[in-house]
Amino acid sequence: MITQQTSEKLLKLKLSAFVEVCDDMANNNSYTLSLEEALALMVDRELLQRQQRKQARLLKMAKLRFPQATLEDIDYRLPRQFNQQQFRSLASMDWLQKGRNIIFTGPTGVGKSHLACALGHLACRELFHTEYYRVPRLIEQLRLSHADGTYTRCLDAIAKKQLLILDDWGIDQLDRQARRDLLEVLEDRCGKASTIITTQLPIEHWHDYIGDGTIADAICDRVINQAYRFNMTGESVRKEKNRLTNVDHSV
Q1: In a domain, 245, yes or no
Q2: Is the pLDDT assigned to residue 247 strictly greater than 50?
Q3: Strand, coil or helix: 46
Q4: Are residues 51 and 67 in the same domain?
Q5: In the chain, fewer beta carbons within 10 Å around the N or the C end?
Q6: How confident is the model at residue 30 (pLDDT cuts 50, 70, 90)?
Q7: Structure letter (DSSP) for residue 191
Q8: Tens digit of pLDDT for each residue in 121-145?
Q9: Largest CA-CA distance found in the chain, in angstroms, rounded
Q10: What are 222-245's pLDDT values in tens digits?
Q11: What is the H or E stretch that residue 105 is in?
């Protein structure tokens, strides 16, 4: 049993797990550990708790649209089609370590954003710095940063994210400034960090969406050539879940 004074010192050193292990040992006579074994247990628990706190912090900072989405909870029985085997292989996170991109295309409701957030959730658990944006919101944030003089700082902050999720790509037509801003964001990441894009817009229509041939070529070159592509088809997952819920209520 450690003294109150020692306990307070350990807490000041942010070693709360050491205090917990000592209290557990004092309150449980079944512990028969040597000094070396006890110290190893304290260190292991402290490392685990610090990792868990960092994971929680990264998840909060990521601002995922679906923060509870995980790869483990994905229902592969839903009426939608995509390359499930290739998607399952993404759990290795090899793509993120190599700075590869991922593109989810398909109609609304098939779960593109949910799959993207599940990968984002895993990235946070693996201690990668992650951030989620809807593209219209990102464009607006960059537009405001031009006005208040924080544009370079904003770009630098985004560039530092090891995973950037861009949801709802292709919703609104881009103006001149917006397409240039997107190019800057993606240029900073090319070959260095990963980007996930979800869109209803087929890749062959991206040039029309971006609007400027030269910039469109540059953006597509930086995103598509290093990307895993998932073309999703099928019925809306939301409609299917609503249908099942209504059936349950009618029983």
Answers
A1: no
A2: no
A3: helix
A4: no
A5: C
A6: low
A7: T
A8: 999 999 999 999 999 999 999 999 9
A9: 74
A10: 999 889 999 999 888 766 555 544
A11: strand 101-105
Provide the phi-psi class of 99: left if phi over 0, else alpha when psi is between -120 and 50, else beta. Answer: left
> Quick one: CA torsion of 98, 99, 100, 105, rounded to 10 degrees?
150
CA dihedral 197, 200, 203, 205 (to 10 degrees): -130
Give the domain extent around 220: 63-240
Q: Do residues 165 and 187 share a domain?
A: yes
The token duo for 239 is 């409609």
Question: What type of residue sits at position 44?
Answer: D
169/210 Cα distance (integer angstroms): 10
Helix (H) or strand (E) segment spanning residue 196: strand 194-199
Does residue 96 share a domain with residue 45? no
- Give the global pTM: 0.84
199, with CB counted inside 10 A (0-12, 13-18, 19+), is: buried
Confirm if 171 and 205 have CB atoms less than 8 A apart.
Answer: no
What's the rounded Cα separation, in Å, for the pair 138 and 127?
23
**Burial 41-66, CB ≥16 within 10 A → b, else e:** bbeebbeeeeeeeeeeebbeebebbb
